[in-house]
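User: quick one, sequence for these tokens?
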């Protein structure tokens, strides 16, 4: 499969798209065609294993660039944890995506990308350096996914004191090929420095690649769990809709891609916090990002979501076609906390703020509709410990793998500006050639 840049200036293979992350003119890659899988596949989902479903969905996008047996092995490793669908009330279900090693859905994409890079790298003598900025969850997932991957160095930039203690330990305590740069600044500063590094001719020899959600290897495997959710409700013979708490819109974009391939989900809902650029776009047809507002669902504090252009491309820029399959609603902090309280008090379910926003979007869409609804619970409540404990007035029990990490030592290199980032990258390079 070939991928074209949305600027229509570049066309590359899957491998090149994975290594480049983004095209040289900073445009996202998009698959040249989206195959419609036969109805015999969709009708038979309940008789297929998760790995088989994953393979059918992903193999058209990879073609012969990874041999079938190896791709199956990669998918098996990617899906090595549970994706339970929990019934909340009669027609409402939570798809829990947080049972992976770092307790957020980003484990799926990070793991798949790490395995693909590792395969492509096996006959390379040069190392690649994965450079990534994180506001919290991406860093841990990428660190875990790439840990001890041969020929790959990982450098993570994170904003000092703006990630939770658990998130920080997840990305600073591994060592080996994982280096954490603790940036005195904000997430936006981290992202700006990563972008600058990609443009820096002097860093060419590092073979920099990005592991942010714009990378096709992080985006595509997210399709799989939408199909796994549908598989679990299929025998109810009812219309199914899915609500995704959305920030950079990678997750929902993968769901819509699965729909294009024939997944019988009738509608997708993008639920956002006060960073409501897409919600306003769906109301006014006018795309107008504002300054980012910090919220308790901080992984969705994005005002100009990178993946939205992919969604528009999928719908040939037709607002009407998009509006048919897709709605977007935004919610305040107050509403989010109230939803967490209702889910706990009435349905005995502990949701963290992102899942609660997803639940709100679903509830709003379902008001007058006889459908089955799923919302994605994108992270484990423990990752947002303070907010959850305060809002619900409860004490959360630490899962075992988190207890372990709490005893580990944080190792980071403090940096103040781009020059210092570059210096650390240079050291990294000298050490590893
Ligand atoms: C990253 C993240 C999101 C947003 O997902 P997108 O694919 O960027 O829309 C939602 N919830 C959590 C917990 C996240 O870490």
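Assistant:
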């Amino acid at each position: 499969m070939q991928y074209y840049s949305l600027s229509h200036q570049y066309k590359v293979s899957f491998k090149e798209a994975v290594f480049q992350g983004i095209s040289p003119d900073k445009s996202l890659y998009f698959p040249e065609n989206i195959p419609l899988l036969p109805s015999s596949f969709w009708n038979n989902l309940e008789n297929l294993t998760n790995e088989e479903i994953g393979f059918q969905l992903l193999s058209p996008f990879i073609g012969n660039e990874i041999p079938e047996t190896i791709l199956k092995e990669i998918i098996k490793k990617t899906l090595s944890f549970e994706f339970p669908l929990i019934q909340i009330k009669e027609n409402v279900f939570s798809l829990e995506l947080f049972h992976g090693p770092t307790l957020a859905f980003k484990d799926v994409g990070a793991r798949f990308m790490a395995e693909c890079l590792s395969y492509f790298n096996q006959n390379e003598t040069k190392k690649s350096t994965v450079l990534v900025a994180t506001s919290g969850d991406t860093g841990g997932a990428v660190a875990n996914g790439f840990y001890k991957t041969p020929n790959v160095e990982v450098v993570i930039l994170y904003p000092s004191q703006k990630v939770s203690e658990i998130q920080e330990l997840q990305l600073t305590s591994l060592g080996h090929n994982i280096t954490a740069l603790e940036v005195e600044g904000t997430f936006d500063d981290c992202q700006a420095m990563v972008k600058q590094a990609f443009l820096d001719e002097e860093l060419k020899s590092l073979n920099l690649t990005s592991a942010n959600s714009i990378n096709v290897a992080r985006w595509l495997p997210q399709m799989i769990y939408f199909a796994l959710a549908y598989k679990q409700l299929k025998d109810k013979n009812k219309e199914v809709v899915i609500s995704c708490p959305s920030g950079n819109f990678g997750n929902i974009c993968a769901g819509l891609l699965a729909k294009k391939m024939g997944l019988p989900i009738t509608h997708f809902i993008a639920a956002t916090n006060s960073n409501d650029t897409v919600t306003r776009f769906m109301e006014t047809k006018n795309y107008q990002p504002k300054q980012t507002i910090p919220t308790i669902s901080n992984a969705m504090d994005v005002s100009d979501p990178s993946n939205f252009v992919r969604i528009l491309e999928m719908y040939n820029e037709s607002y009407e076609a998009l509006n048919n399959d897709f709605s977007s609603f935004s919610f305040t902090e107050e509403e989010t906390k109230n939803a967490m309280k209702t889910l706990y008090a009435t349905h005995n379910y502990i949701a963290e703020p992102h899942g609660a926003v997803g639940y709100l979007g679903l509830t709003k869409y379902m008001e007058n509709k006889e459908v089955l609804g799923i919302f994605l619970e994108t992270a484990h409540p423990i990752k947002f410990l303070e907010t959850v404990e305060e809002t619900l007035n409860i004490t959360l029990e630490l899962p075992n793998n988190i207890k372990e990490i709490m005893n580990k030592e944080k190792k980071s290199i403090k940096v103040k500006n781009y020059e210092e980032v570059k210096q650390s990258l240079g050291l990294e390079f000298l050490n590893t050639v």
